[in-house]
């Protein structure tokens, strides 16, 4: 089978399509035939060597597909539609492949209202948003500033925060105001428009502004970042958090239900064949995409 891997770190040209034996599921494992797999900024970071280590490294965290084979002790059946977040920055094979073997307990039923391409955009971004909101631990009625509210994580954070009863202000490019408000933001700030200092109970900083985002948090509030190790130092009694995403099948099942209910909106900017993974990386690096790029084996 074919997979997108990196044997030497670098730019998009470092992405290789390599051949591998078809993996065989063991005890408690499932082999998934990959139907679609989103390309995320973390894949670009892995490709560039941001997480260290050495190749070969398999790319891809998101997967939507069909159960292809199961190992002993597994309840999943061949043919069932599933999706998952497959974590790890140094895995030999990722989801950017024709097949992948994963632990059965990280899989969840794919949303019935979404095709595989749209379903593949949901796991990593929505899981990140939900787990980061859990870290912030704000109560209904409290105020939240979401920086980067039109992005993959940020848009889902707005949707989920609104669903949790928070008062949400979204920060994004001015052209995105209608989109951000439609996702549930109570207020909107155009990028570059300063938020009132120390005025929010919490900030969810998907744009990695750091200290600039921290300044919007009230004394004793909370800051949440998406890149562990790059969060700003605490000040004024502010609790500083950063999410390390973990696979969570129960959460994914809940997110699938929210997608089927129309609470979570998925956006696909375009699809590429697996063999064009390097081109997909180059396009994502250019920025300005209204949604996720998805690889289709």
Give the secondary structure arrangement, pairings included:
Elements: E1 2-6, E2 15-19, E3 29-39, H1 41-48, E4 57-58, E5 62-70, E6 81-85, E7 99-103, E8 108-109, H2 116-119, H3 123-136, E9 143-147, H4 152-163, E10 167-172, H5 177-182, E11 187-190, E12 200-205, H6 211-214, E13 217-225, E14 239-242, H7 249-260, E15 268-273, H8 277-286, E16 292-296
Parallel strand pairs: 9-10, 9-12, 10-11, 12-13, 13-14, 15-16
Antiparallel strand pairs: 1-2, 1-4, 3-5, 3-7, 3-16, 5-6, 6-8
Helix pairs in contact: 3-4
Could you describe the 3D structure shown?
- Strands 3, 5, 6, 7, 8, 15 and 16 form a 7-stranded mixed beta sheet that branches. The protein has a 6-stranded parallel beta sheet with strand order 11-10-9-12-13-14.
- The chain is globular.
- The model has no long low-confidence stretch (mean pLDDT 97).
- The chain has 297 residues and is an alpha/beta fold.
- Strand 1 and strand 2 form a beta hairpin.
- The longest helix has 14 residues, at 123-136.
- The chain is built from 8 helices and 16 strands.
């Amino acid at each position: 089978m074919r997979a997108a891997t990196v044997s030497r770190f670098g730019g998009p040209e470092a992405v290789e399509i390599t051949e591998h034996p078809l993996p065989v599921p063991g005890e408690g494992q499932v082999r998934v035939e990959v139907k679609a797999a989103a390309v995320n900024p973390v894949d670009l970071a892995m490709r560039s060597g941001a997480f260290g280590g050495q190749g070969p490294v398999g790319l891809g965290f998101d997967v939507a597909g069909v159960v292809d084979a199961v190992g002993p002790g597994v309840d999943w059946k061949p043919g069932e539609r599933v999706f998952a977040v497959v974590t790890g920055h140094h895995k030999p094979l990722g989801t950017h492949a024709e097949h992948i073997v994963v632990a059965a307990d990280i899989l969840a039923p794919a949303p019935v209202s979404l095709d595989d391409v749209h379903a593949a955009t949901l796991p990593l971004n929505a899981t990140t948003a939900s787990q980061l909101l859990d870290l912030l631990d704000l109560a209904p009625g409290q105020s939240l500033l979401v920086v980067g509210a039109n992005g993959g994580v940020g848009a889902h954070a707005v949707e989920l925060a609104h669903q949790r009863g928070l008062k949400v202000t979204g920060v994004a490019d001015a052209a995105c105001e209608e989109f951000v408000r439609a996702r549930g933001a109570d207020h909107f700030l155009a990028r570059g428009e300063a938020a009132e200092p120390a005025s929010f109970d919490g900030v969810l900083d998907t744009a990695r502004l750091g200290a600039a985002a921290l300044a919007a948090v009230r004394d004793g509030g909370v800051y949440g970042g998406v890149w562990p190790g790059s969060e700003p130092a605490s000040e004024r009694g502010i609790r500083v958090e950063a999410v390390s995403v973990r696979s969570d099948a129960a959460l994914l099942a809940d997110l699938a239900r929210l997608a089927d209910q129309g609470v979570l909106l998925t956006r696909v900017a375009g699809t590429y064949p697996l063999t064009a993974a390097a081109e997909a990386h180059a396009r994502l690096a250019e920025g300005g995409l209204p949604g996720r790029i998805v690889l289709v084996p």
